[in-house]
Design a protein that fits this description.
It is a single chain. The protein is α+β, with helices and mostly antiparallel strands and 622 residues long. Helices cover 37% and strands 18% of the residues. Helix 1 runs parallel beside helix 10, helix 3 crosses helix 4 and helix 13 runs antiparallel to helix 17. The radius of gyration is 26 Å and the shape is globular. The relative contact order is 0.12.
Length: 622
């Protein structure tokens, strides 16, 4: 019935969708197996993509040739660039999306992807031959064979849903959980543990009084994720902001005795950075209110997602408390909030390619690795799909380093440090974030994607044109001067000191009050050159960032050069750390378990001290 596939992807969430698309677009024959083909890349939690640091990840996926940015842009109902009041390293794009259209668009793109087959079923076992994954066995009794297997099971492995004292099996509300895989993998020597995540109530928008809330509109000139710049919005839907109160908190507290989190019925660790409302009330007892974001679920629905009101309290307590929130006095509920507990596998059991160390040709991606968020999952799926294809083609692995991409930071953190709570990306996790901006993801990564055959010729040509335009703008502003007569009126209006003599245009741009669009209006020579170069607004913005932050960028590049000296010192996978008696016992155990690829990776392992690294370096003659 089934042919032999190159890559079998188990799970059709954000991770599985990107993994299948990447492997198929690279030329592998791919089978995507999912429990419900109507819910491919389902937005199980909030109907939004991107945000702080997450937006950078989506742009990186797009730059490499993935689909998440294209789907997000095609289905967005609002766009905002977050943190514009801060430095460009913090700017993060975010879209509000139509939940239904998002899944439809993903399926449409996957069905148009060559080399792709689909099968609706539940995988219960991995078929092995001599510690190599060679296929999967399904609930319907099908044995399907492939050269590489990618598990992207999300929250479905032994998933359990909690609402107050009630609990039942499920991967998300309305969908069953999956059993068998965890038990098999544990029998093979894998470590497994439990994690928890949650989601809030969904409310009928016809019963919400928006006049009592703060409106949060999209940007005046909405952008997008994809560097192909398709599907820019002409109209947008607003989000809204309201707040809890002491009265709301007191009602929620009445359900604490029945809370599965406080009663100990949930074993898994929840996300510290996206806690439930009861967790926030308990942890931040000094605060008398918490912000809630009221987010529309799409263009043609009245359903709203109440961001910030995630809860696993009894449903009647959730409803009663919500009605005391300003604007929700007459609200009606579509679905209650709930917590979900599921199995994951500590990611220190993985290689940089996301292949497991225990079983060859078996890859893990997404929440199975202890992460949270669509964007983190999609990035892992992309990397796993690429590397599964490359391995069966006997090609070099595709690895992104920490200084190259947020995706590189994500994977290095996971496999080097592991997780003790659901991992979420933040800009603070990236030590080179001025280099890893959202505006230059294509400049950083499109050639990498093009070289392996994933990013298209169109993408490559676009980024080369962009690069040349930026270089021309930089070159002109550094070689041409501007006079006091051209600028002093502007300087006075912007509240910065006036010029006394001609200076280079780039020197004027170093002033935080002045931007390049201001100078284009005042300098005839600059205006003429810009008209010749014909950059778009994004090109101008990128050029201005490079000019304004040149000193900071140079410093980070120096730090990267130092890092690469460590990263360039390889460590053999079979290195016996127990022979090094001068390093600590903890270091020996951690190094033997994680088997770092380089001295640089070894230095980032928790429990490995600088003195331990010095011993290793001396042993290697460094």
């Amino acid at each position: 019935m089934f042919e032999r596939y190159d890559v079998i992807v188990v799970g059709g969430g954000h991770s599985g969708a990107e993994a299948a698309a990447a492997a198929a677009n690279l030329g592998s024959k791919v089978l995507l197996i999912t429990m419900n083909l109507q819910k491919i890349a389902q937005m199980s939690c909030n109907p939004a993509m991107g945000g702080v640091a997450k937006g950078q990840i989506v742009r990186e996926i797009d730059a490499l040739g993935g689909y998440s940015g294209l789907v997000s842009d095609a289905t967005m109902i609002q766009f905002r660039m977050l943190n514009k009041s801060k430095g460009p390293a913090m700017w993060s794009p975010r879209t509000q999306n139509d939940r239904v259209q998002f899944a439809i668009k993903w399926r449409e793109l996957l069905e148009k992807t060559p080399n792709m087959d689909f099968w609706q079923d539940t995988v219960t076992n991995i078929i092995l031959k001599d510690d190599v994954a060679v296929g999967v066995r399904t609930q319907m009794g099908q044995d399907i064979y492939g050269k590489a297997i990618i598990l992207t099971n999300g929250t479905f492995l032994n998933g359990k849903i909690h609402i107050g004292k009630k609990n039942f099996g499920g991967g998300r509300i309305g969908d069953p959980s999956s059993a068998g895989i965890t038990e098999q993998l544990k029998s093979l020597g894998f470590e497994s543990d439990r994690m928890k995540t949650g989601t809030p109530v969904r409310v009928d928008g016809r019963t919400i009084d928006f006049t009592k809330m703060e409106e949060q509109k999209g940007d005046d000139s909405p952008g997008g994720f994809s560097f192909l710049k398709q599907n820019r919005l002409k109209t947008q839907r607003s989000c809204w902001i309201t707040y809890t109160s002491p009265e709301v908190h007191n009602i929620l507290k009445t359900g604490f005795d029945d809370s599965p989190m406080f009663a100990g019925r949930i074993e898994g660790v929840g996300p510290r950075y996206c806690p439930s409302i009861e967790d926030k009330i308990d942890r931040f007892s000094d605060r008398d209110r918490h912000q809630l974001f009221v987010e529309p679920e799409g263009w043609n629905t009245v359903e709203y997602y109440i961001n910030g009101f995630s809860s696993s309290l009894p449903d009647h307590v959730q409803f009663e408390a919500l009605k005391k929130v300003v604007g929700f006095e007459k609200s009606k509920i579509f679905t209650p909030g709930y917590a979900i507990e599921y199995d994951y596998f500590p990611p220190t059991q993985l290689k940089y390619t996301l292949e497991t160390k225990v079983v060859n040709n078996l890859y893990f991606a997404g929440q199975i690795n202890g992460t949270t968020g669509y964007e983190e999952a999609a990035a892992q799926g992309l990397v796993a799909g690429i590397n599964a294809h490359l391995k069966i083609q006997n090609k070099e692995p595709f690895i992104l380093e920490r200084h190259e991409a947020y995706i590189g930071v994500l994977i290095d953190d996971l496999i080097t440090k592991g997780v003790d709570e659901p991992y979420r990306m933040f800009t603070s996790r990236a030590e080179y974030r001025i280099l890893l901006r959202q505006d230059n993801a294509d400049v950083r990564l499109t050639k990498r994607g093009y070289d392996i055959g994933l990013a298209s010729q169109e993408r490559y040509d676009l980024v080369e044109k962009k690069r040349k335009k930026i270089e021309e703008i930089e070159r002109f502003t550094k070689s041409q001067s501007i006079s006091p007569q051209e600028t002093n009126k502007l300087m006075k209006a912007k509240g910065t000191s006036q010029l006394r003599q001609k200076v280079k245009i780039s020197d004027v741009l170093l002033r935080p009050q002045i931007n390049i669009s201001d100078l284009i209006k005042t300098s005839e020579s600059l205006n003429e050159r810009i008209e010749q170069i014909k950059p778009d607004n994004d090109d101008l913005e990128s050029a201005e960032i490079l000019i304004k932050y040149e000193g900071y960028i140079a410093k980070e590049k120096e730090l990267v050069a130092k890092l690469l000296r460590l990263e360039g010192t390889p460590l053999k996978e079979d290195f016996d750390y127990h022979t090094l008696k001068s390093i600590s016992n903890e270091a020996r155990e951690k190094l033997s378990k994680i088997k770092p690829r380089t001295i640089g990776q070894a230095s980032r392992i928790s429990g490995v001290s600088p003195s331990d690294i010095n011993v290793i370096a001396v042993f290697l003659g460094r």
